[in-house]
Each structure stands twice: as C-alpha cells, then as structure tokens.
Amino acid sequence: MDNGKKTWFIPDAFYPEKDNGDYVSHEAVCVLNTNDSDAHISLTLYFEDREPVSGFSAVCPARRTNHIRLDKIVASDGRRIERGIPYAILVESDVPIVCQYSRLDTTQSEMSFMGLIAY
Predict the structure, then answer these.
(1) Closest C-alpha among 57, 28, 22 to residue 42
(2) Which superfamily, per CATH, for 5-117?
C-alpha cells in the first residue's frame, strides 16, 4: 500500500525553552508507514537567520508508526535541536509516508497542545 508522500514540510516548529512542573515541553514528527519496507527518514532544519542544519535521521518500520521526539533526536555530528529558536522542518523519506507534527508547550500552568498534518 503506497500511501503518503516522500517529502513533507513543517513550517512552524518551536521547542519551548522551559518546562513547568512534571510535564516536559516537546515536539514530535509523527510518522505512519503503511508500506512493506522500512522508511528511512531524514530531517533538515531551516531557520530565519542561519544556514540549514541536517544530519537528523530516524527509521519508521514497515506497517508501523514512529513518534520522532525532537527533544531526544541527535544529529550525526552530536548536535541537538536548540530550545527557544523558531525553525521549519523538511522531512524526507525513501518510501511514501504520512507525516504529522505535534507540540506540547508546558511553559505555563495552562499547558497547550498543537497537532497538525504536515504539507
């Protein structure tokens, strides 16, 4: 079953700088792979005032989902995603996938959650 696309864009990403209480602010790129083969995924980050950063990768097994936590992902050179800096994400896969983005912001006691389908 070939559902989805190989290229997705998430134009509004932001990893909040602080947490409040027991809940940790985080983002996730949520992937659905309905194919019979694993999806090898690469993420490139784009910024307002600096060059893009690549080297982030993940695998979503065949016929599975993977919630790629952006607060836990590490690039091939050891870099992590910086907190408090707006950015956009280019998601590329070697097989068609469906891609969603979610953000949990716990910077205030009234937490907020945002989820949207990538483009």
Answers:
(1) 57
(2) TM1070-like (2.60.290.11)
Token pair 């980050």: residue = 45
> By C-alpha distance, which of 96, 100, 116 is closest to 40?
96
Domain ranges of the chain: 5-117
Q: Give CA–CA dist 91/47, Å, rounded.
A: 15
Q: What is this structure's pTM?
A: 0.87
pLDDT confidence of residue 8 = 97
Phi and psi at residue 65, to the nearest 5°: -120, 160
- Reading the block at residue 58, the tokens are 């993940």
